[in-house]
Amino acid sequence: MKVPYSWLKDFVEIDVTPEVLADKLVKAGFEVDSIIYDGEQCKNVVTGRIEELVPHPDSDHMVICQMNVGQDELIQIVTGASNVAVGDVVPTALHNSHLPNGVNIKKGKLRGVPSNGMLCSGEELNLTEEEFPGAGVYGILQLDKNLPLGMDINEVIGKNDVILDVEITANRPDCNSIIGIAREVAAVLNKPLKNLDIDYKEDETDSIENYVDVDVRTENCNHYIAKAVKNVVIKDSPSYIQKRLISCGIRPINNIVDITNYVLLEVGQPTHAFDKNELKDGIIVVRQAENGEVIVTLDEQENKLKDSMIVIADKSNPIAVAGIMGGLGSGIKENTNTVVFESAKFARDYIRRTSRELKLYSDSSQRFEKGIDYISQNLAMDRILTLIYQTNSGTIVSGKREYIDKPNNVRFVDFTSKDITKILGIVISDEQITEILESLQFKITENNDIFTAEIPLYREDIINANDISEELIRMYGYDHIQSTLFTNPAQTQGGKTKYQQFEDKLKKTLCGMGIFEGINYSFITPKAFDMLNLASDDSRRNAIKLINPLGEDLSVMRTTLAHSMIQSIGNNLAKSVPAGRIFEVARTYIPKEMPIVNQPNEVENLIIGTFGENEDFYTIKGIIENLLDVFCIDAKYTRATETYLHDGRSANIVVGKNIIGKFGEVHPRVLENYGINQRIYIAEIELEKLFKLAKEFRPYVNIPKYPAVDRDIAILVDKSVTADDILSTIKKTGGKILESEKIFDIYTSNLIGANNKSVAISMTFRAEDRTLKEEEINSQIERILKSLEIRLGAKLR
User: Fold this and answer.
1) pLDDT at 488 over 70
2) Residue 319 half-sphere exposure, CB side, CA atoms within 13 Å?
């Protein structure tokens, strides 16, 4: 918010430099983004009077001026302007001057004649006709001939102010105004605060009842005031109002509109002026809009309304979008003779949503979105009427129309100095507590060591002793807080949880295998489930939809990480990355019920993706086996039925009776959905299950005392028999002396049958207490072969 220094001085006696004041405001919790000196843009330009004017000897359009700029001697300046004459007082740029348009003026010669400066136009001073009368004329800017000579031009055109650009935090909407900042300035400087000038007279012979009635039909309007002014004279605003509006970035229009904008900045309360003659049947109706209603606003844009929006209407049609912008038809015109002023409080969330839906933004909507208190409506209206009265802009009709949904009760907060000490950790004396809070316009009483603070009506952010403590410390000074060690004997040293340590170990292991970590949005497109070929009744289709998504492609919470990984790999391939390995640790969001009532289950998963000519089913299986080995987990692998994985090239990861994940080659149809034309492989593991199974080390096993015996067999089985079926059967039958078993070869050929395969298995036997005999081993092998034959139909080759 831009705060002119001169405007602040209307309310506070400021005896410090802008830099000192800015520093004090920062310490009080207000960030000052910048200090703007209006005069910095225009230097060494003064008022000068033309004492003598002669033609240039070598030019038919230039003249030589002898300028009186308040110095001992006249200054010679050559100009080509045609609108100058002896006696004119004009802006005179002297040697080494700087103009707002970036031009630097130095003395020199024009066609052989010395010129020690330049006479300036309004354009060269960056002025418009609205800012300064005559600035829009082509030629040299003509000034008042009674002005002192040598006067800084910034003082003449009103560009000699200092402006503080103050950032207002969301919890302090009461400071979105000049008077709001002035209250803080008075507190930090320990100066008295001057009240707003409220002084006007009404025509007691006339009543508001003869002009307008107000009917509030929506609960989203908490307070509404209407006042009438007759015999309105439309004219320019006083120069001080125009200059202050311009310094704050608002273009002056006419006295009525300018006064509403002036009060918006000064008090922070948006107001609006309606042309009474445009109100049908003299009634203002505050209501919800009807679906499809149309209004043309002051920016000449047609807006189609919804029933979620609030409008100000007359008996027939909307005349303003409440809290945002007035309608073009009801605006102030040159022939307006009666005005109805509005000052109201609307629900901030409705204003925010309406502004965004209509893409209609204004200073008023910004104020309403940040919050307006209940007392500002009357204060702003009184201030408007004061300015109307002082500028002779019309006759104020007596009485007002007012609606308020609840009384504006005074609030009190009780606290003790011990409460403050407990919250802040430092001692502030009772005298200082009282002094600080009273400087902030709180009314303080003390009884039996209990303070009672009467909260200013505009401070709706003050609720309890914590808020009081915050007010005290920001004024007392945060530098009074001293660092101390914790005194709690139960304090413990900080550190990561077991799960965080597990996750760190997992990521470190994966990075050690040359896999890069990736991060994706938790939001995906609802089309992802079709792209993954999930069944229509798959529970993962039951995804949480976002109320206000960034877009359709990011509109639901993901229930699987597969889509994000396949998409990431596709993006890499599209950018000519030929091969890679990526992993992501992230949560999926599984709703407990639909529609959402409770927080969803957040399940943390690991997804791994690999692609490239050297990657296949066995490389990603090797990654998983290495990862499981790090956490001392033994797993087996069974055929997977995941729809987005290849039927014959995918597997479940099974530990005990639990499936903790799945992996394999992505199904060709799914790859086609993502526009990928080469094989890729992914694995998805539930980390919570993995964490529960993880061990830090394997049990210690003594070094064997007795030798092992290795035996190999080859069996003939049907192709449908899996390796896990064979190994688990051998393991169950092998007894205690079977130490290990593994498949080392698989052979297929029409010679052994089109539906058969030959599987070669290596087995290691060992006993802990003796050397095994040949008969024991043979007997065990016979049992194994018999079991393979019974269970799997296997035959020894």
Assistant:
1) no
2) 25
